């Protein structure tokens, strides 16, 4: 009888040992599993677990690229990240104001009026720096024409003879290549043509930015004069470089539309002694204040994520060369994260700490 009890105790001990060993093995396997885009293991805190986030981005490939970097980090923090919504600027701010999305890239000053109409600081917050350099915007013409006719200021296009140099459709007016209808830059250009007295001699060509820019390059290669709005975020700056191929034009004075436009001074629009007419801007993120308050880890992540301006423009260039599908841009974002893994891991750790501190 004593022998039987002893054997039963031995059997029970073996079963318990096997069970503990199995649990230990499973735990070891789980802790060694890496999250995509991170060198960290799943044993780290996931402050976003169980929380859904709805990101959006505008139509530019660079903005899409940074938004994918943002998504990769959010996934590593445990958030349930929806597919990126591609929306125009007007729709982005409407969606933010109506609580249909949570975060999107933005230009702080260019889109200030949209921000206010969507609820302003009561509903939204602008934070972080999605690119590492200031964003410049203004009017450019080819250097050859500028030097030949001594053109330095946009207001010189009041002269019909000067304006006709840039007439590409034969109506006698200069064709100024502008922006997509509905964007802030389109509204600002129309405003400038009015306040500078240029409506009789200059008109803005509106349409898809990429198509318009391709036409600029074609005309330049044909050695025809070009006049266009541009910003240093665009892939066009790879092809037509300021100072080498084209030059910025000054404007006679600072004037921007809307209530927020009244706050912008000549100092805000002047670069290197030239008044470019557009405020020197910053690429940032705009997010729902309610979401940020409930998710300090995500807030800290938004504050930290940024890419060099050169990498942003490179993505614009790659998109122009054919890598413009969502899967292409996502792949490029994953490569960027891998190439900057230590930096990204540092950002993720700071975000996790912020998440822990709130509990």
UniProtKB/TrEMBL annotation:
SUPFAM superfamilies, sorted: Periplasmic binding protein-like II
Signal keyword on record: yes
ABC-type glycine betaine transport system substrate-binding domain boundaries: 52-338
Gene3D superfamilies hit by this protein: Glycine betaine-binding periplasmic protein, domain 2 (3.40.190.100), Periplasmic binding protein-like II (3.40.190.10)
Stretch forming the signal peptide: 1-29
UniProt-listed InterPro entries: ABC_Gly_betaine_transp_sub-bd (IPR007210)
CDD domains: PBP2_EcProx_like
Name the record gives this protein: Glycine betaine/proline betaine-binding periplasmic protein
Provenance organism: Microcoleus asticus IPMA8
Name of the gene encoding the protein in the UniProt record: proX
């Amino acid at each position: 009888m004593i022998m039987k009890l002893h054997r039963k105790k031995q059997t029970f001990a073996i079963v318990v040992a096997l069970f503990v060993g199995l649990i230990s093995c499973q735990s070891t396997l789980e802790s060694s599993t890496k999250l995509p885009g991170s060198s960290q293991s799943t044993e780290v805190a996931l402050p976003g677990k169980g929380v859904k986030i709805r990101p959006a981005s505008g139509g530019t490939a660079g903005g899409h690229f940074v938004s994918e970097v943002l998504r990769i980090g959010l996934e590593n923090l445990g958030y349930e990240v929806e597919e990126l919504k591609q929306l125009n600027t007007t729709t982005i701010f409407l969606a933010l104001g109506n609580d249909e999305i949570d975060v999107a890239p933005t230009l702080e000053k260019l889109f200030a009026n949209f921000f206010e109409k969507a609820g302003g600081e009561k509903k939204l917050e602008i934070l972080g720096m999605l690119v590492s350099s200031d964003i410049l915007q203004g009017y450019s013409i080819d250097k050859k024409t500028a030097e030949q006719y001594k053109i330095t200021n946009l207001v010189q296009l009041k002269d019909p003879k000067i304006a006709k140099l840039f007439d590409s459709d034969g109506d006698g007016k200069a064709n100024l290549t502008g922006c997509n209808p509905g964007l802030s830059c389109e509204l600002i250009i129309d405003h400038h043509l009015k306040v500078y007295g240029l409506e009789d001699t200059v008109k803005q060509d509106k349409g898809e930015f990429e198509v318009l820019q391709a036409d600029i390059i074609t005309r330049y290669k044909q050695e025809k004069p070009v006049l266009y709005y541009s910003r240093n975020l665009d892939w066009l700056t790879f092809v037509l470089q300021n100072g080498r191929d084209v030059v910025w034009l000054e404007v006679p004075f600072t004037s921007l539309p809307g209530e927020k436009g009244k706050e912008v001074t000549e100092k805000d629009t002047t670069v290197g002694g030239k008044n470019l007419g557009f405020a020197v801007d910053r690429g940032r993120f705009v997010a729902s204040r309610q979401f940020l308050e409930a998710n300090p880890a995500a807030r800290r992540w938004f504050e930290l994520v940024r890419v060099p301006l050169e990498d942003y423009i490179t993505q614009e260039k790659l998109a122009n060369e054919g890598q413009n599908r969502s899967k292409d841009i996502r792949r490029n974002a994953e490569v960027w994260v891998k190439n900057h893994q230590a930096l990204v891991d540092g950002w993720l750790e700071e975000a996790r700490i912020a998440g822990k501190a709130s509990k």
